[in-house]
Predict the structure.
Amino acid sequence: MKAVVENYRENIKIKKKNSMLHSLKRDSLLYLLLLLPMAYILVFRYAPIYGVLMAFQDYNIFEGISGSEWVGLDVFKFIFQQNSFYRALTNTLVLNLLDLVAGFPAPIILAILLSEIRYVRFKKVTQTILYLPHFLSWIIIGGMVYLLFSSGGMANTVLSSIGIGKIEFLSQKTNWLIMYIAIGIWQSVGWGTIIYLASIIGINKELYEAADIDGCSRLRKIWHITLPGIKPTIIILLILQIGRMLSIGFDRPFVMGNSLVSEYSDVISTYVYRIGIGSGDFSQATAVGLFQSVVGLIFLVAANYIAKRIGEQGIW
């Protein structure tokens, strides 16, 4: 009996091995296509992890990581005593929270509206107009914003000509916040709309046909079919965005910020740039980046855990 069991196990191993070899041979071109992305991830994502050691050193660029003095957690202690760090941390959280509250629902609403449009040509033109800003560099967007909304820009010229007077869009703090969030939504809403449109297309059309037979209005179909159908996508994207609460891009605040609104525009990414590139303190810059990554991971895990606890689908 023992020999039979061992023989059976050996046959299973052989079958698995043959199946794996067959899969590799059958999908060899697909695996070949994966080589370049994998090389990119290894070189630009995993290799730089070695540089995290600088956060625990008094790093000297001439001596390198191997020759620099180890200082333990002293760099972190120093950072946590700096008021400028807490200002950047607070600004990052506030701007990301405003982006989440104001910007997260926008692509959902647009995707639902586009899915309800029956005139195909108008729908395609609208989609193209919405997607285009996503492919613009923030440098270009920053130039457009300055041209339109600076003190001597086109918007203020028009407002002055009709007797309203100038509005300081980019130098008054509250106005700058509104502009920052609005421009961010305009730039990113098209890409998010693509994701939700793809999710809506995947909903079973028979559900809508059954709703039509029952005499449901468009609003009821959206509420009872469309929104539940894209709910898993909404939850996953919400979890990912919560995980990025401390990760704010460098381009947007750097391009749109100025000295008059630095109280709001100085975020973690610009803070790291200033102390790392500007002051040459690579240990501090690395420590702040490591802190940002760890807290972001905690946010991600916590959001995923809460989603699963309330019965929703998580990302793992």
Notes: The radius of gyration is 26 Å.
